Automatic annotation (TrEMBL):
PANTHER family associated with the record: FILAMENT ORGANIZATION PROTEIN APP1-LIKE, PUTATIVE (AFU_ORTHOLOGUE AFUA_1G06650)-RELATED, PHOSPHATIDATE PHOSPHATASE APP1
GO molecular function: phosphatidate phosphatase activity
Domain of life of the source: Bacteria
Domain Phosphatidate phosphatase APP1 catalytic residues, every copy: 188-338
Name assigned to this protein: Phosphatidate phosphatase APP1 catalytic domain-containing protein
């Protein structure tokens, strides 16, 4: 019997083998994409919340964090009256009506049907990952162990991020995209509060805070965007992480704020909030546990990186950052505190707050213009 080697020359046979391998590879990729049973229904929406990825100790693998939220919007209900009454915004009714489109946009994610029990598949490059099951609050997570060559292949070098998309059902052409901010083993990370640090919130006045959060256009703290842009260019690989007690429902509005006023983009670390469980009370509790836990995680994930901490005097940022600086003295490059009015009218005794921390390691300012001159 005549063998295949006698029919084809060796060079031609090699080309056939290579071509066959490529075709099979493509078919396997196609099958792997379409074989995934996407649980995302046509009336459900996903928001991916920007997370971080970092190399493990050996440098050969990276841990990529993914965080998303799946829910069904409720476009029919008007919760204006209930929302104003619950949060004491009745006196801002006329102002809210003036900015009705803003108020409606900010409120709508507080009144959605969260979808639990969903395992969302995502595609990074040509690879498929199925994430952990979503909880009753609709939030889902994933820690993906990948190789350094994969990170090199997948990353967008202009933004130093890895983009990805959710896999939807056949005939569902919607695209739900997210990104993972990559933290090199060494470099500087800027951890920033939001309220009264980069955005005027008036935390000391609870009614003004609620109106600034839910009814009024967001206003930047003067010159802070320029200061952050300056920090971003001081050292290559500088990253930004926005750690706030604000609820995740405000993420779309907050990221639009960053883009509008040209703040550097970065990962977000906000608080979970849901009407139906104890997280409802998180809006009225101290931000300290959430902020400390988040900052310590970033420090532990990236043991060779150095950190700048930026906050304000209105909500325990100075005390939290001082505690972190004492615990990790070699890791904290500098602390910046924006001094704002406090509820009791008293100013912090900063020398007491930062006792034991060199004065060269912390700065208190009322006008960010003074920081631009440094």
């Amino acid at each position: 019997m005549m063998t295949i080697q006698r029919i084809f020359s060796k060079p031609l046979l090699n080309k056939i083998v290579i071509l066959t391998g490529l075709v099979n590879g493509f078919l396997l990729w196609s099958l792997s994409v379409h074989a995934v049973d996407s649980p995302i229904k046509s009336d459900e929406v996903i928001i991916f919340l920007p997370e971080v990825g970092y190399p493990l100790a050996d440098g050969k693998q990276w841990n990529l964090h993914v965080h998303g939220w799946i829910y069904e919007p409720d476009w029919s209900s008007d919760f204006s009256i209930a929302f104003r009454t619950l949060f004491g915004l009745e006196e801002y009714r006329l102002e809210e009506e003036k900015y009705e489109s803003i108020a409606q946009e900010r409120r709508k994610l507080f009144f959605v049907d969260n979808e639990g029990g969903k395992r969302i598949p995502i595609r990074i490059g040509a690879k498929i990952f199925v994430l952990d099951q979503s909880g009753s609050n609709g939030h889902f997570y994933g820690n993906l162990l990948v190789t350094a060559p994969e990170v090199e292949q997948w990353q967008d070098k202009a933004t130093h991020t890895i983009p990805f998309t959710a896999i939807t059902r056949e005939n569902d052409n919607r695209q739900f995209s997210g990104k993972i901010y990559l933290l090199d083993a060494k470099g500087v990370s800027v951890i920033s509060d939001i309220d009264d640090t980069i955005k005027v919130s008036e935390v000391h006045d609870k009614k003004a805070l609620l109106a600034n959060t839910f009814s009024r256009p967001f206003v930047p703290v003067p010159q802070m965007a320029q200061f952050y842009q300056q920090l971003a260019t001081q050292e290559p690989g500088t990253t930004f992480h926005y750690v706030s007690a604000s609820p995740w429902q405000l993420y779309p509005a907050l990221t639009e704020f960053l883009e509008t006023y040209h703040f550097p983009l970065g990962s977000f670390h906000l608080r979970l909030f849901r009407w139906k469980d104890s997280s409802f009370f998180s809006l009225f509790q101290s931000p300290q546990p959430h902020k400390i836990e988040t900052i310590e995680h970033l420090l532990q994930w990236c043991p060779q990186r150095r950190f700048m901490l930026v906050g304000d005097s209105g909500e325990q940022d100075a005390e939290i950052y001082a505690m972190i600086a004492r615990k990790y003295p070699e890791r904290i490059v500098h602390i910046f505190i924006h001094e704002v009015p406090r509820q009791n009218g008293n100013k912090l005794d900063y020398r007491e707050v930062f006792k034991g921390i060199p004065t060269t390691q912390w700065t208190v300012f009322t006008d960010a213009t003074s920081l631009l001159a440094k």
